[in-house]
Amino acid sequence: MIPTPSPPLPLSAAEAMRLALSLARAASTTAPPNPAVGCVIVAADGRIVGAGQTQRAGGPHAEIMALRDAAARGVSTTGATAFVTLEPCSHHGRTGPCCDALVQAGIAKVVASIPDPNPLVSGQGFERLRAAGVEVEVGPQAEAARALNIGFLSRMIRKTPWVRLKAAASLDGRTALENGSSQWITGDAARADGHAWRARAGAILTGVGTVIEDNPRLDVRGVDTVRQPPLVIVDSRLQTPPDARLFEIPERPVWIYAAARDDDRARALEARGAIVSCLANADGKVDLRALLADLARREVNELHVEAGHKLNGSLMREGLVDELLIYLAPKFIGDGLGIASHPHAGGALTSLGGALALEFQSFEAIGPDLRIVARVAGRDHF
């Protein structure tokens, strides 16, 4: 069904692209590992004749859905303009080339927010459109489109997922009491919002310490979703209990990374459906950088980290965290555990100049709590 835009018809080019972005955002929980893309087809008189968004992996892309929408309404797309948030694909993957479908549908112009960095596309979609006589414009709403698919861009360009570390803390930065108690620092609204961020992730990562101490499920709850992101466990000595609650989620992949294989423990976990991999560094612990590279090969775009202060500290110390998702509660705890232990390479800082520089992306009240999104400075310049 064609969405009804808030501005009156006829639709301007800027309004059409904003509408395409809203469709793309709606696909953020269903599209992975594909990018979340929206497409709006507008006739010469400014009427919307078709609209769509990326479906689940293996399903139609946004352009195909928009063309189907137009066909279902018996509306011609000849001479129309397609507004799409990412360059139309030009290769045969799980689906056929979208650029060819647009040409066959008589589209006269394509306006795209950003090029597709996938080496199988990477400008070839635009080239094929132009070769077929279709006018191409690139750039409108580029920043918003890039932010929406930062994980896909990271995987294609850096060959590693976009790592987002989530934590709930008191106003003085404590994530738990000294005895480890942490339930609950933030309120119901913040916890529900956290599930929405889980839903858009390509995978959720935690450490074996969290598994043993909290026995969490770490699934998506209370949010409409058609998929449960795979769960990744950093477990150097394969201490994950085979009867842990995390195995209760039907059909969810569980990927456990160890430093060395213990055959008996590995077989017990594999009997519960886990995939056990061994990636050791020189210190006899899990090689976190190699782990991220392996997750990229598994098509993980965004990695959502919900771990304890030790694993958080290791990820930050190795420079592997791209973004922080922090929920601050209006509470003051005093002595307790922080978000990350020893997060700086080389030990404790002796100068503030060595602090990790962040760039705030957003602030928003979530119930009584405050949600802060901050990126490592310059990390998204790729």
What's the quick description here?
The protein has 382 residues and is an alpha/beta fold. The protein has helices spanning 13-26, 62-72, 98-104, 124-131, 142-148, 150-157, 188-200, 208-214, 263-270, 288-297, 309-317; strands at 38-42, 48-53, 81-84, 109-112, 135-138, 162-170, 174-176, 203-207, 231-234, 254-258, 275-278, 302-305, 323-329, 337-338, 358-366, 369-376. The radius of gyration is 23 Å and the shape is globular.
Key attributes of the depicted protein:
382 residues, alpha/beta, nine-stranded mixed beta sheet, five-stranded mixed beta sheet, 11 helices, 16 strands, 22% strand, globular
Strand content: 15-25%
Distance from first to last alpha carbon: 36 Å
The counted number of beta strands is 16
What is the H/E order?
HEEHEHEHEHHEEHEHEEHEHEHEEEE
Main sheet summary: 9 strands, mixed
Q: What is the subunit arrangement here?
A: single chain
Taking all residues together, what is the mean pLDDT? Answer: 92
| Largest sheet strand order | 11-10-9-8-12-6-13-16-15
Residue windows where pLDDT falls under 50 for at least 5 positions: none
Overall SS class: alpha/beta
Q: Specify the helix fraction band.
A: 25-40%
Radius of gyration: 23 Å
* CA-based shape: globular
Q: Please tally the helical runs, counting DSSP H or I stretches of 4 or more residues.
A: 11
